[in-house]
Every structure is written in C-alpha cells, then in structure tokens.
Design a protein that fits this description.
Keywords: Cytoplasm, Pentose shunt, Schiff base, Transferase. One of its GO terms (biological process) is ketone catabolic process. This is Probable transaldolase. Belongs to the transaldolase family. Type 3B subfamily. This protein is an alpha/beta fold. It has one domain (about 1-215): TIM Barrel. It has helices spanning about 10-20, 30-35, 40-55, 65-80, 90-105, 115-125, 135-140, 145-160, 170-180, 190-195, 200-215; strands at about 1-5, 25, 55-60, 85-90, 110-115, 130, 165, 185-190. The protein has an eight-stranded parallel barrel, surrounded by seven helices. α5 (about 90-105) runs parallel beside α6.
C-alpha cells in the first residue's frame, strides 16, 4: 500500500519524507487556501516546491468544470513537473478530459467519487487513480469502507489498471480497514500516519526496558 499525504503544508510533507514512508501527496484548493497560498502563480510555485520535496506522484487539482478549461489547466499543471498528476472531478466533462489526458500519457486522479458506478467510468476513461471519499460517505450514514471494497473487487474482476486511492481517511482504523480490503493507496493527514506508531504496550514495554537498564547500570 502507498501512503500519500493529503496536505499542502511543506513542513508536514518534509516530516513524512524524513520518516521514510511517504509515497506521494494529494492537494486541493481548500488545502492550498488553508496554507494561505493564493493566486495562480503562487499555487503553481507551491506545487513545484512540493515536487522538489517528494519523490512520488503529486496530485494537483484543476478548477475548471468545462472540458476545454479542464484540458487547458491540466496541461499547464502537467508541464510543471513529471511527478504531477492532474486531479479531475467526477463530472461528465471531467470523464471526457480523463480520456484525453490518458491518450496523451498524462497521469490523472479522478476525485469526488462516491459510487461504484462513478469509479467504473473513471477506470473506463483511463484514470491513473480514482479517489473515493471514505470519511465524507461516513458523514452521511453511508459506508465508505464498503465502497472501497466494492471498487477493488470490480477493478479486479476486469483487470483495470486504475489504482484505488482511498481519500478522506481520517483516522487509523480507516487506514487499517483500507489496507485489509486491498486499497492501492491511502491519502490522509500526517497525524493519521503518525498514529500508526502508537500502542500502549509499546510505551509500557519501552519504559520497563529503560527502567531495568537503569537498575543494572547503577
């Protein structure tokens, strides 16, 4: 399983890289705004900075919702760096654009996916990644993990190469469940990745070892 960081915070990205477990980054306009990155030139420059830090795919999202606008913005993003993946919304013109990008050899991430049917369309169009939103489905009483499992099965049935990127992963149980059912990628905040480190018995065991070491070395 690949670990992507869902952020535009450069310090968080550096910390995950230093930990040695980061495979890529996903971003969106909301995450850019959270870091007060505003204006086209600043946003494009920020994507370049991220690509300089991360040795892996970096999803950069288009703002346009019409076919020509998505193509225009996506080509600008793709030209920034070889690691850029053009993030395209699951809408009619988005699916058409994914086919265009796929035919041009440009990697894509189909985002805002909330059903197996949408995921099937994305795979048929040639998306590199499909991003079902686990947490947002849970928010409305649906089962986000079940959707991930369903998409994994469908892609396996027909040999689609599109990778299932579990998005809106909010806590450690989400991440572990995605791993159990075979998601190719999870994208989440740094806190979720760091949460994998934690177990009370690890803390207790380490404290015991250190105390015993102190006793025998008095």
């Amino acid at each position: 399983m690949k670990f992507f960081l869902d952020t535009a915070n450069l310090n968080d990205i550096r910390e995950a890289v230093e930990l040695g477990v980061l495979d890529g980054v996903t971003t969106n306009p909301s995450l850019m705004a959270k870091e007060d990155v505003r204006g086209v030139d600043s946003v494009l420059g920020h994507y370049r900075h991220i690509c300089e830090i991360v040795d892996g795919d970096v999803s950069a999202e288009v703002i346009a919702t019409d076919y020509n606008g998505i193509i225009r913005e996506g080509e600008v993003l793709a030209d920034l760096h070889p690691n850029i993946v053009v993030k395209v919304p699951m809408i009619r013109d988005g699916v058409k654009a994914i086919r265009y990008f796929s035919d041009k050899g440009i990697k894509t991430n189909c985002t805002l996916v909330f059903s197996a049917g949408q995921a099937l369309l994305a795979a048929k169009a040639g998306a590199t990644y499909v991003s079902p939103f686990v947490g947002r489905l849970d928010d409305i009483g649906a089962d986000g993990i079940q959707l991930i499992e369903q998409i994994v099965q469908i892609y396996g049935n027909y040999g689609y190469q599109t990778q299932v990127l579990a998005a809106s992963v909010r806590h450690v149980p989400h991440l572990i469940q995605c791993a159990e059912i075979g998601a190719d990628v999870v994208t989440c905040p740094l806190s979720v990745i760091l949460g994998l480190l934690n177990h009370p018995l690890t803390d207790k065991g380490l404290a015991t070892f250190l105390a015993d070491h102190a006793k025998v070395n008095k």
